[in-house]
Amino acid sequence: MPKNPALIFLAAFLVNNILLIRYIGLCPFFGVSTSLNTAFGMSAAVMFVMILAAWVTWFIFHIVLVPLNLIFLRTATFILVIAALVQFVEMFLKKSYRALYSAMGIYLPLITTNCAILAVTFLNIDYRHNLLQATIFALGTGLGFALVIILFSAIRERLDYAPITRSFRGYPIAFIAASLVSLAFLGFIGLFGLSL
Amino acid sequence: MIQLRQMNKKSSRLKYLTNGIILENPTLILMIGLCPTLATSITVRDGLGMAAAASFVIIGSNVVASLLRRLIPATVRIPIFIIIISTFVTLVDYILQAYEPGLYQVLGVFVPLIVVNCIVLGRVEAFAYKHNVLDSMLDGMGKSLGFTLVLFVMGTIREVLGSGTFWGRPVTPAWFRQYPILLMILPPGAFILIGILKALLNKLMKPGS
Amino acid sequence: MSQSKVYMVLSLVVICLISAFALAQVYTLTKAKIEQAKIEAVMNALSQVLPNAISFEEKESSRVWFGYDKNGNKVGIVFQVMPRGYGGPIGTLVGVDSTGKITGLRIASPAEGLKETAGLGLRVREDWFRNQFINKTKNELRLKKDGGTIDAITAATISSRAVTNGVREGLERYKKYWSNDSTSPNE
């Protein structure tokens, strides 16, 4: 795995795109990418929580779990942290940034079970990232998620007007469309020497 | 009269089990649990390994949550469910590390990701919290069977077409294995396959023009 | 079902404690087995490339191992090189006997971090490619198109060349280990 922050970013953003190459984060992807507006809202919420979660879990892992030999509590701790974070973010937004809350607040509860956020926190540990690398990784992954989901919502809005055979309407054609975008993303392999 | 009611109860009980296999198949009907399905179905062996691990968590969490349902206050039920589920996931994590390290390496980050697998939390919240232990266990088993079935089908197609093998053993002629359909073991192939499967299911469930 | 705040907190704390306790038990129980599994995996890999040895001793951390037969005689060494292929480093284990001939070659699997392209570079793992290296001496270790005797994988020259050159360079670099102590044979 690359160590250089720029390469980490590129890998997370394009070459190892979390949605189309790692297959992570798909559930909300198909549900929320139906319109451009919801896509923007969800992406913003995901990116925000992703970076915050990366920080908090990194600190908890390195300052609490490792010294106390409690690594086996990693899964439980991380997911609880994410759930708590989402709660706090939601409460904070509701109180202080009403406008922002009504824009992306509805997606926040959905994010708790978003595989992508938990995956980022785990991968940061597996790849032995320091804090800076972890932040860049979270940023790149979040942007990669946003890129794909926004791209895709545009495609799906178009699909709504296309004549598609009954059995393929809805999810099936969305999957086929996803496969084509994924095929395109495979083309990024080898960029600056990065690989799958 | 009582005999009739008991018979009805038995058949509805069985329904909890059988529903999960096709009618309420988690992956293809409820559209949950997609991530691990696509990621681990590259070979049959990995897919079934994932299915086994996930099933352990689904059934275990369902049973425990149902056992404790009267003790869990509604206001903090989600965090408590999460703790129960993550306990089972960590259990599976360490058991795999100890006894099946090869499979553990292949599944990678998807083992801890079982904790956010929508199937687990979904069934605990929607079913186990409101039903008794036996029914919850049956429901968990049914959904696990459905999940396993899809993984098996996808794993078979992807492995046979993409590598020419089944469970690691060659099942296609050598000329095919020289240059198999690479697409099937790469991400786009997975998406196409599940799209076709879903379309097939749509067609089968709503026949007609 | 009590709704009081106290009960809420209490139930959370209790379940946390039970969970933590259960997991601590599982961790202690499996720790030994996990360590053992890791060691077994390494031993397995080493035996694959130096079949005559039944025990191994690590000489350079994760790089060189000495292999011994049942009488404690050194039968050869195993070294690991990580030449850069198309997608990343290719973990290659090479077994060498005391005359400098290769006894086996093992390439890491995707599960162990190999990142070569499926259907192309990944094929360096195939038996026929790896078996080419057995009994070869240093001078034969180049691709045919580079003047040696190794057949590359069609359309995967980068990966094939990486492995071949990596093995040759490793043979040279670790000569001090496999060559007999008193003399250094001219290869």
Layout of SSEs?
The complex is a heterotrimer of chains A (196), B (209) and C (187).
Chain A: H1 5-15, H2 26-32, H3 36-65, H4 74-96, H5 98-104, H6 108-111, H7 115-126, H8 131-159, H9 171-186
Chain B: H1 2-19, H2 34-40, H3 44-67, H4 77-99, H5 101-107, H6 118-126, H7 133-163, E1 165-166, E2 169-170, H8 174-178, H9 187-205
Antiparallel strand pairs in B: 1-2
Helix pairs in contact in B: 1-7, 3-4, 3-6, 3-7, 4-5, 4-6
Chain C: H1 5-49, E1 55-60, E2 64-68, E3 74-81, E4 92-97, E5 102-107, H2 127-131, H3 157-173, H4 175-178
Give the proportion of residues in helices of chain A: over 70%
- Shape estimate of chain A: globular
Number of helices of chain B: 9
Query: For the largest interface in this structure, which chains are involved and how many residues does each contribute?
Result: A-B, 45 and 42 residues
Shape of chain B: globular
**Biggest beta-sheet profile of chain A:** none
Function (chain A): Part of a membrane-bound complex that couples electron transfer with translocation of ions across the membrane.
Membrane topology (chain A): Multi-pass membrane protein
Subcellular location (chain A): Cell membrane; Endomembrane system
Protein name (chain A): Ion-translocating oxidoreductase complex subunit A
Describe this structure in words.
The complex is a heterotrimer of chains A (196), B (209) and C (187). Chain A has 9 helices and no strands. By secondary structure, chain A is mostly helical. Chain A has one domain. Chain B has one domain (23-194). Chain B is built from 9 helices and 2 strands. Chain B has helices spanning 2-19, 34-40, 44-67, 77-99, 101-107, 118-126, 133-163, 174-178, 187-205, and strands at 165-166, 169-170. Chain B has a two-stranded antiparallel sheet with strand order 1-2. In chain B, helix 3 (44-67) runs parallel beside helix 6, helix 4 (77-99) packs across helix 5 (101-107) and helix 4 (77-99) crosses helix 6 (118-126). Chain C is α+β, with helices and mostly antiparallel strands and 187 residues long. Chain C has a domain at 55-178. In chain C, 38% of the residues lie in helices and 17% in strands. Chain C is built from 4 helices and 5 strands, in the order αβββββααα. Chain C has helices at residues 5-49, 127-131, 157-173, 175-178; strands at 55-60, 64-68, 74-81, 92-97, 102-107. In chain C, strands 1-2-3-4-5 form a 5-stranded antiparallel sheet. The longest helix of chain C has 45 residues, at 5-49. The termini of chain C are far apart. Residues 182-187 of chain C have low confidence and may be disordered. Chain A binds chain B through residues 20-27, 30, 72-76, 78-80, 83, 112-115, 118-119, 122-123, 126, 166-176, 178-180, 182-183, 185-186, and chain B through 31-35, 38-39, 78-79, 82-83, 86-87, 89-90, 93-94, 109, 112-113, 115-118, 121, 186-192, 194-196, 198-200, 202-203, 206, 209.
